[in-house]
Sequence to fold (330 residues):
Amino acid sequence: MTKTIIGKALPNIPWEDKPAGCIDVMWRYSGNPVIGWNPVPKAARVYNSAIVPFKGEFAGVFRADQKNGRATLFAGTSKDGLKIDLNLDPIEWVDEIGNPAPTSYAYDPRVVEIEGEFFVTWCDDMRGPSIGLGKTNDFKTFVRMPNPLMPYNRNGVLFPRKINGKYKLLSRPSDTGHTPFGNIYISESPDMIHWGNHKLVMTNGGQGWWQGMKVGAGPVPIETTEGWLLFYHGVSSTCNGYVYSFGAVLLDIDEPSKVLYRTRDYLLTPELPYEASGFVPNVVFPCANLYDAETGRIAIYYGAADTYTAIAFCQVDEVISYMKANSEVF
Ligand code: BMA
Fold:
């Protein structure tokens, strides 16, 4: 039988079957949150973080807000994807010749393996939020590359392979503050340095009020026989502040600026205490997904309430069928 996910098997993917009686497409790990307050002395809150398969186990780049409130990136490892061993100190970025290249602040990392190298994108300070880009082979040495786009921009997410000979980057142009607007765009590059041919992918709005104010790309897109499966966050504005939920979109495999299906309703919204209460209440913010092409299992890592790291699960075929039956493309 043809497998839906085009990619590697990951037999050790963290997994729990859907609980009996659950009617939703996505369900939470019963051991959530997997990272709580103050996991290491220099990190108060670890959330909106990225994890990838690495040498038979897992490694990642984690957003850790320190006790001065500053957002920083820490590297970490995990044997099973559930218990995360965070380094004690933040990543010390270097430039291409090994000189220190520190970040002023850094948050919301994504990590993607492309042709055997791991690339990291994050929200970087370039006299205002912009997209940082760097790479590592070992999760010990992290080398900065030129920032791909001008400020102000956030939520930079690379595709895991070239498409029609070009690297592709999703992004969400923004402002210097909390950005009460936001659409997802795509850019391309022949060399990861020069980026252009910018196109609009998708906007806020539609019938789904949960994504009425802004949208931003989440984890690295998953290649499937039906298109690129991208989980993304959608934000609504309430009288008590912003609420972050997430949904999914299927993008055309050869022309990923084209949306094929998009969830009208959210897949996950803040419901449980660790999502609804914390440093910033009512936030679920996905930044990574692990997947097993053999079984179609997907594990999504999301930040909860800007305080915790949590995991949710779904099955690729179920998500895609649900999207087809409950789609709104606008
Ligand atoms: C966004 C980003 C995220 C954060 C969210 C909710 O603008 O800063 O890191 O999770 O706001 O506070």
